[in-house]
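[09:14] KT: can someone run the structure on this one? pasting the chain below
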Amino acid sequence: MKGWQIFRHSFNLVMANLDQALRLSLVLYLVQSCYTVYSFLNPPQTMEFEGTEIPIMAPETILPTIILGLLAVIASLWIAVAWHRFALTGETTKSWVPHFHGSEIMGYLGRSILIGVLVVLAIVVVSIPVGIISLGLPALAGLMSLIMIGVAAYLFFRLGIMLPAAALGERLSLANAWDATKGQSATILMLALIVVGASVVIQLPSWFNDDPNSIINVVYSLVVNWFATIIGISVLTTLYGHFVENRPID
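[09:31] RB: done, structure tokens below
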């Protein structure tokens, strides 16, 4: 089961280099988390409109939210590029903030947007027959939602190997990214199911909390999301290393 091997290799990569993972990402992740904390401390107000409660941001929170949101995006891209480069080239840092590769980060952003748009378009197309089936067979609505999530994850991982390439300053087109995993659909699908399943499992404790908006849930989410973020980046790294650079995963 190569899908499981890829996930295990990605997980072990983080665990074996936990000190470097923290050094490359901790400060930046704290910056990224400021957006979550601020949103938690300043929840949107609600206004009733035609019987529906609509969330509305307080005017004084709009600018800080925008600034913190931009900083969160930059920090997340910075972390991703730094970890890809460490895993693939051995680039390390002795400080608590990794080197800023501006052009690679911008390339990473552009490719992320491209992949996101393509995945959304694919989901829109898939949602049409899925919606029809759900209307005819309401009992299968949950299954149909899982299918859509699986399709999104599958497409993301097949195209996502463009992202480690961007972190290295390499050019990898959509066609080349798709061809790199040609004949590996079962592996990618299994990997997608494992990643989605693992994401659900680590979120279960917060779902069982009586108060989903409690400070405990926020702290728990921030901690587990750090692991999920680094491992998710590692999965893309492993896919690129194995299918593009022919590295072993045993």
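[09:33] KT: thanks! Residues 102-136 form the longest helix (35 residues).
[09:34] RB: yep, looked fine to me
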